[in-house]
Specification:
The complex is a heterodimer of chains A (242) and B (186). Chain A is α/β, with parallel strands linked by helices and 242 residues long. Chain A has nine helices and ten strands. Chain A has helices at residues 5-10, 16-24, 30-50, 63-71, 89-92, 95-109, 124-135, 190-201, 218-221; strands spanning 51-53, 73-76, 84-87, 116-120, 138-142, 152-158, 163-169, 178-186, 205-214, 229-233. In chain A, the strands form three sheets. A six-stranded parallel β-sheet of chain A has the order 1-10-9-8-4-5, sandwiched between helices. In chain A, strand 6 (152-158) and strand 7 (163-169) form a beta hairpin. The longest helix of chain A is centred in the first third of the chain and has 21 residues, at 30-50. The radius of gyration of chain A is 20 Å and the shape is globular. The termini of chain A are far apart. Chain B is an alpha/beta fold and 186 residues long. Chain B has a domain at 58-180: Rossmann fold (3-Layer(aba) Sandwich). Chain B has helices at residues 9-17, 35-38, 41-55, 69-81, 136-147, 166-169; strands at residues 2-4, 19-22, 30-33, 62-66, 84-88, 98-104, 109-115, 124-132, 151-160, 175-181. In chain B, helix 5 (136-147) links the parallel strand 8 (124-132) and strand 9. Chain B is globular, with a radius of gyration of 16 Å. The chains are: A alpha/beta (242), B alpha/beta (186). Chain B: One of its GO terms (molecular function) is adenine phosphoribosyltransferase activity. Chain B: Its EC number is 2.4.2.7. Chain B: One of its GO terms (cellular component) is cytosol.
Chain lengths: 242, 186
Amino acid sequence: MTPDINKLNQNKTPTLCSISSLLLFPNTSVSEGNTKANHLFLFFSFSQHLAMFAEENGLRGDPRLQAISQAIRVVPHFPKQGIMFQDITTLLLDHKAFKDTVDIFVDRYRDMHISVVAGIEARGFMFGPAIALGIGAKFVPLRKPRKLPGEVISEKYALEYGTDCLELHVGAVQPGERAIVIDDLVATGGTLSAGVKLLERVGAEVVECACVIGVPEVKGQCRLIGKPLYVLVEPRQADKCC
Amino acid sequence: MCAYRDEDPRLHDLKTKIRVVPNFPKPGIMFQDITTLLLDPKAFKNTIDMFVERYKGKNISVVAGIEARGFIFGSPIALAIGAKFVPMRKPKKLPGKVISQEYILEYGRDCLELHVGAVEHGERALVVDDLIATGGTLCAAMDLLERVGAEVVECACVIELPELKGRERLNGKPLYVLVECFECCQ
């Protein structure tokens, strides 16, 4: 439930939050302090709701997470210089770690009345279908342009240079259905955001986005449109060997 | 028109879930759209179950899925039978060192890639895709696996278009399909 920020700002009595924010921003009045505190409170509560890493959300010390992380291979300078590419294909070669990945998501979503698992082409197709089957939901592929044969709706999103586009079949998802969006990795959140928009345009309720890997920056600055994000592991650094 | 392979009642339901989209990707093609099958959780589960029942306990350690619809069927099959899942991808998608196999299209060529080291010598493998038409893509996939010393046990597809004779192109490798479709190309 989002607090009414206007109501909060009118409160002139210092609160514990506002006292801490006065310490952070010393040259403010009490009511200004309350405003800043409320903004801070919303920022933290949104960012805590927005990006949840599994280790800090119910799975602290779960040995499966370490095995999943270690099964991911880092490929330096792919697709271009400077990018440390997180390669999940090695995770798929480790049956136990792959199964554990899917099981963690299935355990999370099983009792949340999710009827749609939307997977983003193409690596979302490697995790999404098994999750859908595990929770009894339909699987809906979100695809690059001109791949889906029937009538589609499209949503553009920004790339570092230029734009790309995701498509969804008309009629695949009904209004009111509860959906999750799956991809292998989230960085800026642009692709996931496009997926969320497509589902919302057809009247679905996107409950959460879920990725195997999430860059630490998603905690603060991802562009997801206010949807919770659940992530299993952070990206790995380059492997020291060869 | 579609026919059943045998009398498994799950096959009838599966057949009705596949949507035919006329004139996609070009005039004269009746495209077999499996996305509507994926919208029915029970039918999708039945599809996977039929493959799993066939391959479980057959010592298959690799399920290779062809980009991208082969990923949708291949990955759950791999998980259920205890095998690794290996994506076979279009060029420049796989980040590590790859081997490539070209194949002929109706107009022009295309290429499939496999990560070096993903599959080891002597492993028993399945190749999975949603549909076999001329068999060109499946052949390229089989070639890649055999080049790294794997044994391709069978190719598995949801749909076959028998009139395009893909089965004959597979060099004697067994092909298992759930549904056949006739008159799909005019």
